Structures are given as C-alpha cells and as structure tokens.
Amino acid sequence: MYSLDVDPQCFVLGPTSDAIASELDNGEKSSSMTTASLVLVDRVYDLVATSRVVRDNFVDNLLEVFGNTSESGVELSANVQTCDILYNMESSTISDTLLLGKPNEEIELFSSLVLKKAKHAQDDIRKELLEIAAMESSMKLNMKVVSNKNIKPLLDCFVEDPTNSDIILQYRNVLAYAAAQAKFEERYDDYFMNIEEITKYMVSHAQMDPLGYILDYIKSEDMPVNFIMDLVILSLSINSEYPSDSRLDEFKNTVISTLLNKPQRHPMPWLGYLEDEIASLVNKKLNNEDIDEYEQQRLQLELVDKMDILIDNLKYIYKVRSGLTDYKNLVNNNGTYQPLLKQIIRDIFNDRKTLTDLKLKENSSLVSGLRNFGFIQSKPKPSSNSTIILFVVGGITCEEISAIKELVPETTNFIIGSTCLITSQRTKQHLSGSFNY
Q: Which of the residues 218, 245, 269, 318 has the least number of beta carbons within 10 Å of its own beta carbon?
C-alpha cells in the first residue's frame, strides 16, 4: 500500500485476511490523502475454482501441465518434441505481480492470452503458427495439416526438419505455448470428464451423502488418484453437509490403496518425496519383483499421515465456511456453480446489497465503538472509494481474473492481486502440507 501511495480501507473475508489487515494497520503508513478500498479474501472459502483441472482458460490449462511457482514468479517451460527430435524452449518467467499493472513487453504474448477463453486462445496460437509458416519460405505445409484443428500436427511441421532451428529460436515464445497446449491435449483430453457436470449431478442427486456417491462412482471406474482428490475436494467445498468420519476414512483408504497398487500416469507433486518411492513400489508389483514389506508399511503410514493432514484442513475449511451468511453456498438452486469472487464483485457494486460476510476492518477501536453504538450511521462499502484493490490470499486462477474484469465498471480503477496463480496441483500441495515456500 505504501508503494501504491494510497491509504487502505480494508474489507476482509477470512481469518488470514483479517490478520493481514491488522498487520497493514500496524505497518508503515502512506502520507497520501487518497483512500483505496483493499478487499482481502481467503482462498479457502472457494476451492471449486482451483480443483477443476480442465478449465475454460488457456493459461490455467498450461499451468496445470508445466506451471510451477517460485519467489520469482510463474515459470512456463515447454518442449517442442516429436518422436525423433527435441528442441528445448527457453523458459518464460512471468512474475505474478505483473498481473497487477500494465503488460510488460517481455510478456506481451502471455498478457494477450491470460484473459481469453481456452478455445479463442488456442485459435490465436494456431493462427500465429500459420502466419509464421507463411512468412518463412523454407516452411512447407500441406492442406491436411492446415485443416487439422489440433495444434500438434501444425507444430510438427516446425520441428520435423532440422534446418528449421533458426526459425524455432526466432519464434520460441509462440512455439513454447503451442508445445504446452499440445502436451495438455495429450495428457488430459483423453480421459478427463466435465467435472462441473459431475458436480451438478452430485449436488442434485446426493445431497445427504455426497462423498458416498463419489466413492461408489470411484469403485465403478478406473480413476486416477488426482481426479479422485479433485472430485472430493470440490464436493466438500460445495455441499453444506459435511461427511461422517467413517466416510472420510473410506475415502482415505481408497486413495491409499489406489496409490499403492495402481500406476498413476499424471504427476502428483502433492505427495512430495513419496511420489517416486510409491511409483517404484508399484512397478515392482507389476513386474512381480520381491517387495520389501517393511518399506510398503512405511509408505502406507506416511500416506496415512499425509491424508490425515489433508482431511483436517478440509474440516477446518468447512468450519470457517459454515459461519458465512452471504457466501455459504457456492451453487444455486439449479446446482450451477457460483464462483465466490464473482459473487463478491457483484455485491460490491450493488448499492442495495448489505455486506454481511465482507467486514470492514476499522483502523481505530474508537471509530468501531462509535459505529457499534450508532453514533456513526453510514458504513462504507468498497465501492465508496474510486480505487478498489482485490487481493486473494492463497492464489487466483486466470479464469477468475477474466470473469472479474467482465463485471467491473470501466469507470472504476480496479486492481487484482494474489499470492500466486494457483492450480489444482498446488491446491492439493497446500492441503496436504507438501508445499515448499
């Protein structure tokens, strides 16, 4: 706030946001006469957006495949590859904080894609590849490749001829995104269902025992563990009735048994160092090699600890969400998901809406006391100030950023910030205690 030269008037949703607002109140003050509304929201109140692996946003989907975050930002690295040739694309590092301001020239392509729906962004990438091929006389395309809707056949034309190495270096940013999209299609399109449709059915048909419905569904399908985890996290974020301890134990045992007996084709960073050890154990079983029983028991016990941490965190999230009034439900009567951030933005700009859950963090106990006793009648809203800063504590998705921007009036100076761009993998890392800060 000091660097933005504004005096923040904080509105908070969640205990972590409340603690941050208190720290800001005790920190260095700006001498500016300009007041900005700082809306702080805890991510844990809506894990639905972060539990969906396949989203309607191009960059979100790429981050699921290649994304990892560090102190320096988000790293998107990709390989352009075919069966017989491999070119390594230089990594493109995008600082999370750049989403707060004007696009930087170095991330111009990223900025143009980050707010677009997946299909439109894919079309743009494909169009760029065709334009590059048209400009380069050495590139030869046949109509079959041009008419193909997938990116990979078009991408292969760039790498199948070793003499195209200069072209690859010149257009490495576009090719890196194209390669990442091709990898995403290869990894997820073949089995990932529409998780929103599953959720909608689940909400409308299994209100009393949603986790039981999921467990029955899992037993009838050969499901990857990542998908099981995402489905359960999503379910527990939506349903108002928390499952019994016996159901949670059944869920835990199902995940552990699947991990120890079936190979998993997708990365599971939320397992930490256990991922490689479990993969080694399962490979031995598949190859009928001798199994160290002590090692298997150790892995099982460590998985129990990790799942217990995850379940305890989900219980805590349910506890804090159950205390909400305005934003307790993330689905409407039709079973359609209503994103928390979209609900908050609509309420902020609705003058007739009284904000109950989004609380004003008074800078002074005297002002707070006078307001409680009725000496100060008017209670400000975030829209009372010309500048509004929304900061999501725990991560935000590009899909959410795009949806928010569509709802904000053009006359409002609106800034979006967050601790990171979050993915379903990172959500599971946070919940299981595996994330390395």
A: 245
How far is Cα 211 from Cα 251, in angstroms, rounded to an integer? 8
The rounded distance, in Å, linking the Cα atoms of 59 and 67 is 9
* 110 half-sphere exposure, CB direction, 13 A CA radius: 25
**C-alpha–C-alpha distance, residues 178 and 152, integer Å:** 8
Alpha helices in 350-408 (DSSP H): 365-372, 398-407
Residue range 103-155, pLDDT digits in tens: 343 445 666 677 777 788 888 888 888 888 888 777 777 777 777 777 778 88
Residue 427 structure tokens? 């959500």
Between the two ends of the chain, the Cα-to-Cα distance in Å is 23
Give CA–CA dist 430/422, Å, rounded. 10
In angstroms, rounded to a whole number, what is the distance separating the alpha carbons of residues 28 and 290? Answer: 62
CA distances from 344 to 48, 123, 324, 361, 428 (A): 15, 32, 13, 16, 25
- Residue 299: enclosing H or E segment and its boundaries? helix 293-322
Neighbours of 8 (CB within 10 A): 24
- Residue 291's contacts (CB-CB under 8 Å, 6 or more residues apart) are 281, 284, 285
Tokens (6 digits) for 397: 């998705």
Helix (H) or strand (E) holding 368: helix 365-372
Amino acid letter, residue 198: I
At 250, the amino acid letter reads E
